[in-house]
Amino acid sequence: MSLYKKSFLKLLDLSADEINGLITLAEKFKALKKNGVPHKLCEGKSVALIFEKTSTRTRCAFEVASNDLGIHPVYLSPECSQIGNKESIADTARVLGRMFDGIEYRGYGQEIVETLARYSGVPVWNGLTNESHPTQILADMMTIKERFGTVKGIKLVFMGNSMYNMGNSLMVGCAKLGVDFVACSPAGYFPCGDLTKICKAEAEKNGSTISFITDPFEAVKNADVIYTDVWVSLGEPDEAWAKRIKDLLPYRVTKELMDKASPDCVFMHCLPSFHDLKTNIGKSIFDKFGIDCMEVTDEVFESERSVVFDEAENRMHTIKAVMASSLCPEQTLDKI
Ligand code: CP
């Protein structure tokens, strides 16, 4: 595979070989880091990290991975830059493209990362848009591979609100890599028809299936992975909570649900998660609606089956693979 000088905007743009290649490279980086072997493959490069929305994992992953690769990262927030307010995305792209070797973007519409890539002339990496969260899916697939030795043939059930970026991106990642994907949601919360059609065709090519099921206990039969995400996404209004809680409460991941899946089934979540009352939002939801957890119980989150912190760590190794693949020629990567 060669992703040299290429952007990473959405998983649909990549072949299965390219996605698997990135996971293999991330595994190599993880081993190097664990063994204390320096791997500053991109010494002298600089990257811009644009965050129009908040982040813990993605920002830290890009910054730590940059440091490990010898890259200088520059963080740009809406408060400290002209982006969007005084300067268009196309103009910003042309400015940053003259100074940086790569640009990461987290924020709003997918068209923004596409515009940055079109106008900047340097690789652009999607750190989350309204439609897509591709670096998260790389980390998830790496985590599944670590747990089961393979991703092909695994059954993954996404529980809850599957109509947004996480449900959509997991469906694409599963279709590309031959994972059986089940979206388990109430009517009205499933991924959109156009993307589903594309993913069904891709899954068929790769020997897997895409299904939509409304009954949680039916959906988790023989599941190897139960995955969920928060019920209200970044940037949605607070008023969304009441309806989401009413609609999605039956889709909370509980021990009873985990017990109906395969005996080796793991619990996954991209994080952050509302599994207890130790967050401001968790406490405010408890005060208003009287529930002490949302998409997952604390019991499942803290259980042996939970691999959520492996996923979080793997964000860094996979993001490192994405940046290195875009910034280094193949010969450089072949040496590690
Ligand atoms: N999973 C994820 O994207 O985490 P952050 O929002 O903390 O970056």
Keyword list:
single chain, 336 residues, alpha/beta, Rossmann fold, 5-stranded parallel beta sheet, 14 helices, 9 strands, globular, binds phosphoric acid mono(formamide)ester
How would you summarize this macromolecular structure in one to three sentences?
This protein is of the alpha/beta class. Helices cover 45% and strands 12% of the residues.
Textual characterization of the structure:
The protein is of the alpha/beta class and 336 residues long. The protein folds into two domains: 143 residues, Aspartate/ornithine carbamoyltransferase (Rossmann fold, 3-Layer(aba) Sandwich), CATH 3.40.50; 144 residues, 3-Layer(aba) Sandwich (Rossmann fold), CATH 3.40.50.1370. It is built from 14 helices and nine strands. A five-stranded parallel β-sheet has the order 7-6-5-8-9. It has a four-stranded parallel β-sheet with strand order 2-1-3-4, sandwiched between helices. Helix 6 links the parallel strand 5 and strand 6. The chain is globular, with a radius of gyration of 20 Å. The model has no long low-confidence stretch (mean pLDDT 97). Bound molecules: phosphoric acid mono(formamide)ester. Phosphoric acid mono(formamide)ester binds next to helix 2.
Radius of gyration computed on alpha carbons:
20 Å
What is the overall number of helices? 14
Number of E-state strands: 9
Query: Could you tell me the mean pLDDT?
Result: 97
> What small molecules does this complex bind?
phosphoric acid mono(formamide)ester
